[in-house]
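Re-running the complex after MR caught last week's input typo. The corrected sequence lines follow. Everything else is unchanged.
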Amino acid sequence: MNTLDDKLSNHIKAVFEELDTEGADYGWTELRKNFPVKSNYRPLYLWLSGIAASLLVAGIFLFNTYNNNALKNVIQHNSITKAAPVAPQKTDSNLDKPVTKKVVNSFEKRTVSVKNSKKNVPLNVVETDIMAVKITDTVPVNELTENVISPLANVAVAKADTVKNTKPTTLEFLQKENEKLKKEGKPLLATTAKSATESRKNAMFDVYTATFLNYYADNPVKVNAGAGFNANIKINKNIYLSMGAGISETKITYQTTRPSSLSSYSNSAADLALMNGYVLGANSIKLNASFLNIDIPVAFKFYPGKSGKYYFSTGINSSTYLNQKYSSSITGFNPSSNSYSDFKGKTEESNFNGFDFANSAIFAIGINQPIGKSSTLTFEPFFKPSLRGYGDKDIKINTAGLNLKLSLGGKK
Amino acid sequence: MFIKHNASDAELIRECKKGNLKYQEMLYKRFYAYAMGICMRYLINKDDALVVVNDAFIKVFNALHNFKDDLEFKPWFRKILVNTALDSKRKNLKYVYDSEIPEVHQQTMYPSAIEKLSAADILNLMKQLPETHHIVFNLYEIDGYSHKEIGQMLNIPESSSRTYLTRAKQALQKLIQSDLIKI
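Corrected-run output:
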C-alpha cells in the first residue's frame, strides 16, 4: 500500500513539476497590470484644495444665512416704518418750523433705525432707506436742499450728544408708535425683540468631544476619541443644517476578515515568517491601520415637536488625513522547535495626504439638557456605518459612540 | 542595457533585487511552469491558478531583498506559492468534522494504472474529492508538510489532518479504479 501511495505521489509530482509552459507570456502581461504598484500618493495641493473647498462651502452657507437675516430685519423694519408715516403729524409744533423741525422728525426716525442697528442691522442700509422715506413723506421736492440732507446724514452717527438730548422724544415716539401698532396687532418692540431672538436661534455653535468604538466585521473593537466644533444653521422651524470640523484618532485591527487592499502588508510579514522556516496559521496575521484625521461632518438635525429637547440627525462625514499608518504582524509556528514567534511586516506611513468625501454616513440622536440661558449640553449617541473606505487603502471602518456637545448661542 | 539571457538563477535574483524589470520578466518566465504546476494542484482551475501564481510572483519581487543569496530559490518560492494558494482557498474552505468524513472502503489499485494518469486525469480526480481532502493530500503527499504543520496552516487538529489524508487516499484509489473500469 505504502509503495503504491509513494508511486502515486511521485507520479503526481513528476506530472506537475512543469506545467503549462506556453502561457508564460500571457501570464507576464497579466502580472504587469498590477506590478509595479502605481503610487496612489495624492499631491499636497489636492489635499489642501479639498479642505479649502469644504471651508468655502461652509463659509458661503454662514455668510448667506447671516446676510439673509440682516436683510430680513431691515425689510421688517422698513415695512413698519412705511406703515406708519405719521410721525411728523404727531407733534403739531414741529410743523411750525418747516426745515429744522422736519430735520428733528427725520432724526427721530433715524434714531429708531440706530437702535435697531444695534441688533445686527447694517447701519448704512437702514439710514439710506429712512432718508428716502422721510424726504418723500414730509419735504416738498423744491425745499429739498443740501442743507437739509447733509445734517440728516451726519447727525445720527457723528453727533452722539445730540442723540442723547433727543432720547426722551425718541422713547415717547417709540411708545406711541408701539401702541398704535399694537392696536393693529403688530407691536414694534415685540417684533424687534422677536427678530433678535430669531437671529440668535438661526445659528448655534457646538463644541464637542467624542468617544467611540471602531470595528469592522468580526475583527477586534478599538476605542478612540476626538473633538471638534459644529455650526448649526436654521433651515426651517424644525430642521437645522449642522456642519463643522473635528479631529480624531481612528485605529483598527483586522485579524479575521481582512481587506484585500492590505494584503501586501500581510504578505510581507508572511514571507518573512516563511523564510525563517515558520508555518502560518489561518488567523495568525494582524493588520493595523491608524489615522489622525480631520472629520468634516455635514448633517441635518430634525427637531420633532416644539420643545427642542431632542433631535434626530442624519448626514455624511468626509475625512482628510494628517497622518496615515499601516502595518502588519504575524505569529508563525516553528515545527522544529515547537514554538511561536512574532514577525513584523511592512509599515507604511504618510502625512497630509488624502481626502475622502462621504466615507461614512451619520445617524445620531441628540438629547439636550439646558445649562444657563444660552447654553445647552447635548448627549448624542451616534452610529457611522462605512460608505467608502478610509485613507489610501480604502479600508472599511464602522464607528459607534457618544458625542458630548456644548451648544453656545441659544437654544432651539 | 545588456541582458544576459542565460543568466543563472543566482544572477537573476541578484538583478531582480535591484528592481530590474527585464530580469524580473526572465525570472517569471523561467519559473512560471514550476509555479503553475504547484498552483494547479490546489486551485484545479487554470485561471484561478494564474491569479495565485501572479500574486506569489509579486510577493517574491517585493520580498526578494530579504532573500539570502546562499539559500535555494525553488524551496523558498514553493512555500510562498503554497501559502498564497491556501490564502486564496481559505475563504471557501469549510472544514468537515471527523464524524462527517465519508467512509471509503479500501480498493485494490494497480501500479500500472497510476502511470497512465495524465495531469488532466489527476486534476479531474482531485476535483471529485472534498476540498479539504485534496488540500491535505497535496500538502502532505506532494509538498512534504507534516501533519503538525498542516494542522497549523489549516487551523485543524493534527488528528484531523491524518484522517483527511487517509480518506483522500481511499477516495483517490476508488476513483482511479472506477475510471480504469470505464476505460
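None of the earlier attempt is carried over here. The mean pLDDT of chain B is 82. Chain B touches chain A through 54 residues (CB under 8 Å).
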